[in-house]
Design brief:
With 188 residues, this protein is α+β, with helices and mostly antiparallel strands. The protein has one domain: Jelly Rolls (Sandwich), CATH 2.60.120. The strands form two sheets. Strands 1, 3, 4, 7, 8, 9 and 12 form a seven-stranded mixed β-sheet that branches. Strands 2, 5, 6, 10, 11 and 13 form a six-stranded mixed β-sheet that branches.
């Protein structure tokens, strides 16, 4: 009988100890979660509307097909691919304009970027004539980047042609691309 009392006493003491540990653990967790520290730094949260619009009239993308190598003078005389980028939100934006590869017809060979020359005119100011391969940054073709203030529109004219120094075997290939814009609000 005495052994039974010892076992009962042991279980009772163990239960009390476990309940005490759980109570202390819960109290410590509650205190840790409810801690409030007041700093001296003022935190500012700015919320605005970022709205960029890319407007282009060519829905089938940018294509260079059945073309022949030409001089820069001839390439600059081609009709441009014109598009605009407008910030009609209420906060300024940083942006990057990419020229991505567009799918080409099955059985067609994609033209290499080092064969294609381009000229980009931004708001009436032309860039130099460069090979498309010079625009590569992290495996993407970057045409332009910058900051676009609220209410501002940038107008672009893009011309593409095959470099005059490429042989005629390039005429059986095709370039197809699309404009892509990535933007982020400027936190001031």
């Amino acid at each position: 009988m005495e052994e039974k009392k010892k076992k009962t006493s042991y279980y009772f003491k163990t239960t009390i100890v476990v309940l005490l540990i759980l109570t202390l653990a819960l109290a410590a967790t509650y205190a840790w979660l409810m801690i409030s520290i007041q700093g001296t730094k003022v935190n500012k949260v700015v919320v605005g509307t970022l709205s960029l619009k890319l407007k282009d009239d060519i829905t089938e993308g940018i294509h260079l097909e059945n073309a022949t190598p030409v001089t820069d003078t001839v390439g600059l005389s081609y009709n441009p691919y014109t598009f605009t980028l407008t910030n009609d939100g209420n906060i300024p934006s940083n942006y990057v304009i990419y020229l991505d590869n567009d799918p080409i017809t099955e059985g067609t060979t994609r033209m290499k970027d080092e064969y294609v020359k381009y000229n980009l005119v931004k708001n009436g100011t032309a860039s130099s004539n460069n090979l498309l391969s010079t625009t590569l940054q992290n495996n993407s073709k970057v045409l332009d980047s910058g900051r676009l203030e609220v209410g501002i529109t940038n107008t672009y004219d893009l011309r593409l042609w095959i470099d005059k120094d490429v042989d005629n075997s390039v005429m059986t290939t095709m370039f197809a691309g699309r404009i892509r814009v990535e933007a982020e609000q400027i936190k001031e």
